[in-house]
Specification:
The chain is mainly alpha-helical and 942 residues long. Helices cover 62% and strands 4% of the residues. Helix 2 (25-35) packs across helix 3 (62-75) and helix 9 (228-238) packs antiparallel against helix 10. The chain is globular.
Length: 942
């Protein structure tokens, strides 16, 4: 075997004379196949997978494989954008995304103004009064990448993603979910623990240890091929790690004694670090100093500022380090030999030398990069320093304004560690805790809250820290634990900080809504009267509203009836306050003011300039308000938005809310397979015993799916889960709308007596239903109509249909009209049956509720009448997303403007319009207006 030099890259990708790869060839082939963009029949290139994850321990050859894939992809005509993460940039918000987009930064200026402003703010290139919307940042990145991929496929390669800042990972996760129509592939390279948000994405290729044969072949390609006992020792100690094989062979070549000190039970990584440390110690003084400086800079591709601080790339001082494999020079670039060698060099250097290098770097960055200056100052500080703490707090504030909440929380924690004043340290830890809530990482929030409580004697500060944990736990599936975590600080704060106590009770009421636990209601009602302003406190309007809101959410039946009358005025006064509008919209929906709720959600969405990174407490109620109002396309979008936000931060319960609501929508539209899949998935995300809201929604969806197929027995079994034998609901608000469906399924499935007992129980509860009694009475009337003897049903139908509460809910009213029309026809009152049947069919057509359209049309034919729609409703056949796109395009919005509103890429919008045109029977964009106008004239909403 030749003795030519072979480094890790060459060894991993080298090809023998036979044309077969020496090692990792199978993995290389799999990656190349995955990122190669096949051409479809229309000539459009599409990647097979939008996201690929390459995982493996340090030295496994990940970077080597990526280099080979990048080279091949570029050679085939594709474009590559790369980001190489490092530990020093983990706490610099959007630094990873900045690296990716820096080579194409000129395209940012061509973005629509809001997207351009959001991305500039994220990169610290513009000042904003508030944090940019994370979804808008993601949309801006998506638009840039979509535009880049217009002419040729695009590969995004993120190396060492375990160190990528959280804000960039969230943005990339957002982008990844919207790449289906784009010739873009995201290749994520990470260690064994995949980055959150992208961790669940498939496929993942994990690089395991080399087998014995591959390891032997790699050793045979080294400059000095080890033999005999030495070779056996290297194979044993390297444990199949390619980098370890190369470096141990190099070490043996320099001195056969070097591996003897590593015979102990050290992990491979520790052995390698010892080798690198020994090589660093053997370097000439000036070379060692230069290498330590390079490692301290901690960046894969040093900036011009850093390079100016180091010896010139061509300086002979680097030669000994290059020969030792500690640095690499080439192509005008200077870097450490491997990320592991960079860490080993840094930690092997004396602490004083490291601190001196950090201090010099802090001075070097100065005002041109205050965040890196603060980071290096902190690294250079061994004791306490109020000055450095203030620098870090300023850096955290800038990170928050860029929506970099994880980075901000870490900087605030480090600032707390450095501050000499205990009270200031507690304040900074409290700020870090509340900021960490916005990352969705419960473990981080719990750790910071524990540190805050341990560092203070102030019970109020300790209670506020516990409240932050509870705020985030309320969005998880641990409802019992979350409730206790919220009620303890609520009880502690009622006397000293009633405003914070109101916040805690409001969050606890959200948990009560999710769980429908009666004991939780009693705890909330015990504390609510105690939330009164302390003589030394004056509550603001929002804090006062929160206490009333908590009462409505926890027990809407007991709400003051006059509050419903005051809601319109409260909404009008809060028109510029989206958070307050959202609270009022939720309250309106819970009080059965559906139309006001939907309008208020519209106003809240219109007035948001920046949405937070977490879903609002009960913000998912918007989807239900739109569903009840008959705006199903908007409801679908609300579900998609909630699911996107929830999944990006790993909040399973919020995701389950979105999925279960979407399951119900699918069932009503006749997609029974999709409905069942979504409903079962929602149930899998939670413990149904703790989350009766999800239990109720999922079984409503499953019941509706069975009804759509005419399987009334199965439908009844699902609806039966929602009530006990005495009519007590599984969920105090979400179960009641299913009562008529339960009665219909019972009447057709032979469960008349049991269902009658349930309806009797619900009717007895009407006396305590407060403002909710009118709608609930209508639901009871419809249920009685389904279960009553044939001659007694009509007055129940007419009483229900005369209720304004039912008139405000198109689908519920149409169901009642259909049932009434069916009853009339069976009583041979054909002329009387036709009007309600025709009205019901028109509503079902408008909503694209296909199973109910078919039933209504069948009844109309049996009544001797023609369907009001002789041709299929082309607009209704579009997907909900296509309907939204068509509506916005009909208003004259460009593809870019539509994409920004719907958080899509312009290419995705274009693709949907391309598919919608033939379905609508049009050929040019200008005809969209006529389609939408015709649909609106027919009464369509959405």
């Amino acid at each position: 075997m030749s003795g030519e030099p072979v480094d890790e890259y060459t060894a991993t990708t080298a090809v023998g004379r036979s044309g077969t790869a020496v090692i990792r060839q199978a993995e290389l082939d799999r990656l190349l196949a995955a990122v190669t963009a096949p051409r479809t029949a229309d000539g459009v290139t599409r990647p097979k997978d939008t996201v690929l994850t390459l995982a493996g321990e340090p030295g496994a050859g990940k970077t080597t494989l990526v280099e080979a894939v990048v080279a091949r992809f570029a050679a085939d005509g594709g474009r590559v954008l790369r980001a190489d993460s490092s530990t020093s940039e983990t706490d610099l918000a959007f630094s990873g995304l900045h690296q990716l987009l820096w080579p194409v930064r000129g395209r940012i200026d061509a973005l629509p103004p809001r997207q351009r402003g959001a991305l500039h703010a994220a990169f610290g290139a513009a000042e904003r009064s508030e944090a940019p919307d994370p979804m808008l940042i993601g949309t801006a990145a998506l638009t840039v990448l979509s535009d880049l991929a217009t002419k040729r496929p695009l590969l995004l390669a993120v190396d060492d993603a375990q160190w990528t800042d959280r804000a960039s990972l969230d943005a990339l996760s957002f982008v990844a979910r919207r790449l289906a129509d784009e010739p873009v592939t995201l290749l994520v390279v990470t260690r064994d623990s995949a980055p959150r948000g992208l961790a669940a994405r498939k496929p993942t290729l994990t690089l395991g240890p080399l087998d014995r044969g591959a390891a032997e072949r790699l050793l045979d390609r080294q400059p000095r091929v080890p033999t005999g006992l030495t070779r056996a020792r290297i194979l044993d100690q390297a444990e199949g790690n390619p980098l370890a094989l190369v470096e141990l062979a190099r070490a043996v070549g320099d001195s056969d004694d070097e591996t003897r000190g590593t015979d102990g039970p050290l992990p491979v990584t520790d052995r390698l670090e010892r080798i690198y440390a020994d090589r660093l110690a053997a370097l000439p003084t000036e070379t060692r100093r230069a290498v330590v400086r390079l490692a301290t800079a901690d960046t894969e591709d040093p900036s011009h500022t850093v390079l100016s601080w180091l010896p010139d790339i061509g300086d002979p001082v680097w030669a000994p380090a290059e020969e030792a494999g500690l640095v690499r020079r080439g192509g005008g670039r200077l870097r450490c030999g491997h990320p592991l060698s960079r860490l080993a060099i840094y930690h092997a250097a004396p602490a004083e030398e490291r601190r001196a290098a950090h201090l010099e770097l802090a001075g070097l960055f100065g005002d041109q990069d205050p965040d890196r200056r603060a980071w290096h100052l902190a690294a250079a500080t061994s004791g306490l320093s109020a000055v450095v703490s203030a620098e870090l707090e300023g850096s955290a504030d800038r990170a928050r304004h860029r929506s970099g909440y994880a980075a901000a929380a870490h900087m605030l924690e480090r600032a707390a560690d450095l501050h000499p004043d205990r009270r200031e340290s507690t304040r900074l830890l409290a700020a870090a805790t509340s900021t960490a809530v916005l990352t969705g990482r419960l473990d981080s929030v719990e750790r910071l809250a524990a540190r805050t409580r341990a560092g203070t004697d102030d019970p109020t500060a300790a209670a506020l820290a516990a409240l932050q944990v509870g705020r985030l736990m309320a969005l998880t599936t641990s409802h019992s634990a979350a409730f206790g975590q919220l009620m303890r600080p609520a009880a502690a704060l009622v006397g000293t900080d009633p405003g914070a106590a109101s916040e805690a009770l409001a969050a606890a009421s959200v948990v009560r809504f999710y769980s429908s636990d009666a004991d939780q209601l009693h705890e909330i009602e015990r504390l609510l009267p105690l939330v009164q302003p302390h003589p030394g406190h004056r509550l603001g309007e929002r804090k006062t509203l929160l206490a009333a809101w908590a009462g409505i959410v926890a027990h809407p039946d007991a709400a003051d009836a006059s509050l419903a009358l005051r809601l319109p005025a409260l909404v009008a006064s809060a028109r510029e306050e989206p958070e307050t509008l959202t609270l009022l919209a939720v309250a309106a929906w819970l009080l059965d003011e559906t139309e006001l709720a939907a309008q208020t959600f519209d106003a809240a969405l219109a007035s948001w300039t920046s949405r937070g990174p977490l879903p609002d407490g009960l913000g998912g109620v918007a989807a239900f308000a739109y569903l009840e109002q008959g705006r199903w396309a908007r409801a679908q979008t609300a579900c998609a938005e909630l699911a996107a936000v929830a999944s990006s931060v790993g909040l399973d319960h919020a995701a389950a809310c979105a999925v279960a609501t979407e399951a119900l929508l699918r069932a009503l539209r006749g997609d029974v397979v999709g409905a069942r899949t979504q409903a079962r998935y929602a149930l899998s995300l939670v413990d149904p015993r703790e989350s009766r809201s999800i239990l109720t929604l999922a079984h409503r969806a499953l019941g509706a799916a069975a009804t759509a197929e005419g399987d009334h027995e199965t439908a009844y079994q699902h609806y039966r889960v929602l009530f006990d034998g005495r009519g007590n609901p599984a969920h105090y608000h979400l179960a009641y709308p299913a009562l008529p469906e339960l009665a219909v399924a019972a009447a057709r499935g032979g469960h008349h007596e049991e269902a009658t007992g349930i309806v009797d129980g619900v009717e007895r509860s009407l006396a305590d239903a407060g403002a909710l009694a009118p709608r609930r009475t209508a639901l009871v009337r419809l249920s009685r109509a389904a279960l009553a003897p044939a001659g007694e049903a009509e007055h129940h139908f007419t009483a229900a249909l005369g209720t304004p509460a039912l008139a405000r809910r198109p689908f519920e009213r149409a169901q009642a009209l259909l049932a009434y029309g069916e009853w009339l026809r069976r009583r041979r009152r054909i002329a009387d049956a036709r009007p309600p049947l025709a009205e019901a069919e028109a509503v079902f057509q408008r909503l694209a509720a296909q199973p109910w359209v078919a039933r209504a049309q069948s009844e109309l034919r049996a009544a001797g009448a023609q369907s009001g729609t002789t041709e299929p409703d082309a607009f209704a056949d579009l997907t909900p997303q296509q309907q939204q796109i068509v509506r916005l395009a009909a208003l004259g919005l460009t593809n870019r403007e539509v994409a920004e509103k719907l958080y899509l890429s312009p290419r995705t919008v274009s693709s949907h319009l391309y598919r919608a045109f033939p379905k609508l029977g049009i050929t040019v964009r200008s005809q969209l207006r006529h389609v939408v106008d015709a649909m609106a004239a027919d009464g369509g909403t959405g």
